[in-house]
Predict the structure.
Amino acid sequence: MLVQVPPHSAEVRQAPQEQVQTDSVVVMSRRSHSTREVFWSMLVLALGGAAFSLDQTGNVGMLVGALYAVCVVFASRLSFIYAVYIVATVCSLLSLFGLSFVDVDLRGWSDVTDRLLIVLAIWIAAFLSLLWDVPQVQDQSRHFKDRLSSGSSLRAEVTTSEPPVETAPVSQEHGDDLAQLNHALLQKNYELETLINVVSHDLRSPLVTIQGFSKELSDACERLRGSMNKNTDMHASDVALLLDEEIPEALRYIRAGADKITSVLSGILQFSRLGRLSLACEPLNMNAIVHGIATVMEYQMKKKGVTLQIDDLPDCLGDETLVSQVFSNLIENAYKYLDPARPGVIRITGEIQDEKSIYTVEDNGVGIREDHLGKIFEMFHRLNPKEGSGEGLGLTIVRRIVERHQGDVWVESVFGIGTKFMVSFPSATTVQQKGHV
Amino acid sequence: MILIAEDDDGHAALIERNLKRSGVGHTYTRLRDGQEALDFLFQKGEGAVRIKNRPYILLLDINLPKISGLEVLRQVKSHAELRKIPVTVLSTTDDPQEVAQCHVLGCSYYITKPTEPEVFMNVITRLGQFLTIVHVPHIQGNMMSPVS
């Protein structure tokens, strides 16, 4: 967001824009304003140039003075008026000190008074132009003073120059907003990168399979055709092998590859939908929500003899649909990875800590090895791809939802003993400030 | 014996078919993830394990479930006996850093799996032709202490 500005030139160019924004009467777009600025600059330059060259070629006294004066009056339309006054003054005095390009003779007193009169004319014109456009010049002078007093304020002004209202130096509040936006942007970027990674790997590998076995299929067709046409060295047993084994196998792999692509694509869609939904946050009765999920899963739990214990849970602030999804994903996960060797126990507890409601979903399942812990939230990462169903998205979705609520999710696990998932959401007692995150 | 450590069934089948076609008529063992690969090589676990005094060639995918191919490579190459096994890394990425890391760890070759099926087949066929002329050491005995 920071626009790096070279210290001199850009400062001056930036000025007219600020002028428009501070002067509430004059409102015009940046483009039209800069065109105007260019026009006046050209005019002043032309007039100044004419005055200076006339001044150099002959002694035309009053005419030169008048030209400089007009030049200065026009210059009052510009943001860098003071520069014009000074340049005009210096130019008119130059020839006094024998720096003239044409006439290098030392001048008499009449010339000196002539010059001084010109300078006087310039500053009278400057004074007149001040009267002509008082508010504008005052604004400018204030800006110049501001800029002189603090170099840093300019940078702040430049950085926020996009929306006109925010041109004032950045306040603390704005800084916080910027930091927050920046954080959100970084997060979005990270997600996009993950998506690109997923697309490049998880879609590419089934594609290779599909294409590879398509080629196998077409080779098999060629061989079959050859055996039919020329009755070559191909035996009936070879044909049978092709028809009974190789071709069905190729078809099976192609179908599996297509299924994989479909599941990756639906996962990506599901994930991106999560990012776009706006949250409808409200205080949630977590006891009701978790018991609701438990009722839905009661049948399969009972069938496997799993005990589901739900303690009294504190309320929290969140989007009901999404928070329910977090808990159903976590409970399903706990259920899926129970150890068949012992009766499963899943326990859900909750407490309030530092304005956060922290919930724990604990199981006595197979556990997660320590070196796998870091990977479990990764998109499409599955520890046991051969066991059970799933796209490897459940925990990724949990993390995504929790992050959107500005909460947190973390895990503790002992391999062979069990796993504890902790999620935190804003507690229901915190002020409802994040209605839309 | 050719070990194919590859999680994708389709890829593994394609690799095996094309290697066979190119004349590598050895026995093939498919290892589905990093854990299975290590268990096989270090003669652990319940599944099939490495047999003493046989030559092995390991074709290793980097993106393996459970234990990554890099870790498998690291463990194999830090073992006094197993480090003799020629390891050819087959990966979908061509990230130079990863290529370099695999070589530092001691892989023999690094091959990027091409996305074009024709090229993929071609690469595997050429790898097969190459493997037929490679001299592979026999991997001896039982477990020895790993090289520190």
Notes: Chain B touches chain A at residues 7-11, 13-14, 17, 32-33, 63, 65-67, 92-93, 113-118, 120-121 (CB under 8 Å).
